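Late entry, evening session. Most of the bench is empty. Finally got around to the prediction I had been postponing all week. Sequence below, unchanged from the version circulated by S.P.
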Amino acid sequence: MKAKVHITLKNGVLDPQGKAVQHALASLGFEGVNDVRQGKFIELDINETDRAKAKEQVEAMCRTLLANTVIENYTVELAD
């Protein structure tokens, strides 16, 4: 089963990389970009056929290693 994990900073957490991208876009002539938030995308291929167990396993991975839950949110999508 494939798992797609999207990790983003929580609202209110400063995002210096996002600001750098926003300024770079403006300097390249892309006006009208009001805010940029940067995140991470992780794709996992796991040996599990039960969707509930797979989601539980991936969420445990997020809480333990993949995401810093103090400052980041994450979402998990599963596909067969």
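Two things to note before I forget:
The first helix runs from residue 16 to 27.
The first strand starts at residue 2 and ends at 9.
Will write this up properly tomorrow.
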